[in-house]
Amino acid sequence: MDREQFRRIQTRRSFFQECAGGIGIMALAQLMEQEGRGAAMDVNPLAPKPPHFAPKAKNVIFIFTEGGPSQIDLFDPKPGLEKWSGKPLPPSMTKDLRLAFTKPNAAVLASPRKFQPYGKSGIEFSDYIPHIGSCADDLCLVRSMFTDAFNHHPGQLLLFGGSIQVGRPTMGAWVLYGLGSESQNLPGFVVLGSGVGTSGGTSNWSSGFLPSTYRGVVFRSSGDPVLYLSNPPGVTKEMQRAELDALKDLNQDHYGETGDMEIASRISSYELAFRMQMAGPELLDFSKESPETLEMYGVASGGNGGPTKQFATNCLLARRMVERGVRFVMLTDASWDDHTDLNRKLKRHCDAADQPTAALIRDLKQRGLLDSTLVVWGGEFGRTPMVEIRDPRDENNAGRDHHPLAYSMFLAGGGIKGGQVIGKTDDLCMNIVEDRVHVHDLQATILHCLGLEHTRLTYHHMGRDFRLTDVAGNVVQKMLG
Question: What is the largest CA-CA distance in the chain?
Answer without folding.
Answer: 97
